[in-house]
Amino acid sequence: MRLKLRNKDNVIIIATLNENSLFKELTETISNLTGIPPLHQELKVGYPPKVCKANDNDTIASTGIQNGDTIILTELSLAEVLNIEQSTPTVSATVPSTNIPTPTSSSNDIISVPTENGFVVLREMADDNSCLFRAIVVIDHIKRNPENYSDVFLGRPREEYCSWISQKNSWGGAIELSIFANHYKAEIRSVDVGSGRIDRYGQGQYDQCVFVIYSGIHYDAIALTPILDASQEYDQTIFSTTDDVILKASLGVAGKMKQLHKYTYTSEFTLRCGQCKQGLKGDQEAIQHAKLT
Questions:
Q1: What is the rounded average pLDDT for all residues in the chain?
Q2: Number of H helices, E strands in the chain
Q3: Helices (H), 71-121
Q4: Cβ(38)–Cβ(28) under 8 Å?
Q5: Strand, coil or helix: 275
Q6: DSSP 3-state assignment of 13?
Q7: Which of 78-82, 178-182, 285-289 shows the lowest mean pLDDT across its residues?
């Protein structure tokens, strides 16, 4: 029997039990793997997830847990444990994982691609001009590595660049992503919605990677969730660089965004000068024209 245990930190495979194993053996196994005592474990299975309230001597099969199921683990506080013991009797509950109801309206709004381990989803970041980077990390890295970040490389004097990137209305890009890859010791893969291109920062340097989706003017995150309505605390956002399933699913998410026209490229904007009425295409033409007028 193979079960997937998901908590807020990671996913753990349990393959030491069978359908005739006792529920007590399952909770003890989980305790050994996570350090969370059985009394403090809240286990949810099925879709949508429901709390599995079984007796210790019930078999795993009788609880409705089946081979291949994902068990969502939440650690209960002492107050929650005491409240459960006082108000809720322990009874055997069957939670079939095969009866999957229609997702709620909230899950319908999520751009997702199903995989064997859950759903790869788009997690939209707040559009507050700081979605990509944290300026302090970037500035510190640039100042510590002047040989790698020369004025020529940055496209402007280093101090001027650091001043610019610290402004709340400044947007980061490839330079900042490469710095984050170095800072967090993980490859960053940026999937371009319009072209489907994947830019890799820190490629070949790390065993783990994260994915971001670039829509032309904004970066959003990619996550793996056990079910579409699960809390984001169960999201997995760090993956092995050899995981082609997540790579393909991320491209699938980008493809769905393109179909929904959820991308914008300032280089394709059509503009007209308010003074001379000259037609312009893209932000760069507009910038150059503004310098001449």
A1: 79
A2: 9, 14
A3: 78-87, 105-108
A4: yes
A5: coil
A6: strand
A7: 285-289
* Token pair of 48 as six digits: 């949508």
Share of the chain above pLDDT 70, in %: 74
Say how far apart CA 21 and CA 1 lie, in whole Å: 10
Q: Do residues 191 and 211 make contact, with C-beta atoms less than 8 angstroms apart?
A: yes
> For the segment 170-220, what is each residue's pLDDT rounded down to a tens digit?
667 888 888 888 888 999 999 999 889 999 999 999 999 999 999 887 788
Token pair 């939440």: residue? 74
Q: How far apart are CA 184 and CA 167, in angstroms?
A: 22
CA–CA dist 23, 32 (Å, integer):
14
Read off the DSSP letter of residue 267.
G
What is the rounded average pLDDT of the residues 236-263?
Answer: 90
- Predicted model pTM: 0.57
Residue in the block written with tokens 């979605």: 131
Residue linked to tokens 């989803």: 121
DSSP at 22: B
- Nearest CA-CA partner of 26 in 2, 60, 51, 73: 60
Measured in whole angstroms, how far is the alpha carbon of residue 162 from the centre of its chain? 28
- Mean pLDDT in residue range 88-100: 39
- The upper half-sphere exposure of residue 169, i.e. CA atoms within 13 Å in the direction of its Cβ, equals 0
Q: Where are the alpha helices (DSSP H) in the chain?
A: 23-34, 78-87, 105-108, 135-144, 151-154, 158-165, 174-184, 244-259, 282-292
**How are beta strands 3-6 and 11-14 bridged, if at all?**
antiparallel
Q: Is the dihedral of CA 19, 22, 27, 32 positive or negative?
A: negative
Structure tokens at 73: 């683990």
Residues 6+ apart with CB under 8 A from 44: 50, 51, 52, 71, 72, 74
Task: Fill in the amino acid letter for 35.
Answer: G
